[in-house]
Amino acid sequence: MKLVNNRFVQAVAVLGVVATLALVTPRAAHAVAVAAALVQVTNTVASPAITQDTSKRAGQLVQLICGSGFNITQGAVSSCYEFSLALALGPPSSYRVPAGQNLVITSVELSNSGGYTGDNLLYLGDTNQGVNYHQWSFSGPNTIEFQYPSGIALSSGTAPAVTSINGGAFLQITGYLTSN
Fold first, then answer.
1. Which of 62, 101, 136, 169 could join 164 via S-S bond, C-beta 3.0 to 4.6 A?
2. Each residue of 70-81: pLDDT tens digit?
3. Cβ–Cβ < 8 Å for 66, 72
């Protein structure tokens, strides 16, 4: 009888500990444990698992400079060029968003140039489609930066171009490529 009673006390003690742990452990930990059992990712050289946000991967970053001689002439439509070592090696060709991808613009840096310090208006458009995507109004000799956390998306095949309305300007675009 004493042996049965002793085992009963031990079983109740173990159940008490388990119940206490179940009450103390947050519900999120229970959900993570269940989800971890359902999802398995294998990271191999042949099939690498992406562990970084698309906008942070170096191979997807794009930096464009717009204008002929990197200066946007008043009233003229100026193409944009990818800022890279290729610019130093020879005449650049106009940038076009690669097939099957979108360009997401995350920041724009602009300023007046050529001694112009008045009010200015820049339009970002597409020379192929004749569409204006965005416009910026600014003034003075200052350099201004606009951030777009959610991004301005340009579709595949778009050839970004800029037009300055009132005076010379400089424009630099930073963004990243995503798959369609």
1. 169
2. 667 777 788 888
3. yes
Token pair belonging to 25 = 């452990």
Measured CA angle at 136 (ends 82, 130), to 5 deg: 65
| CB-facing half-sphere around the CA of 124: CA atoms within 13 A | 23
Mean pLDDT value of segment 63-68: 81
Q: Which CA distances in Å does 53 have to 60, 64, 107?
A: 11, 21, 17
Q: How many CB atoms lie within 10 A of CB 131?
A: 12
* Greatest pairwise CA separation for the chain in angstroms: 102
The 10 Å Cβ neighbour count of residue 60 is 18
Same domain, 34 and 61: no
Query: Residue 153: which residues within 8 A CB-CB, separation 6 or more?
Result: 102, 103, 104, 105
CA–chain centroid gap for 75, Å, is: 31
Q: Is residue 47 part of a domain?
A: no
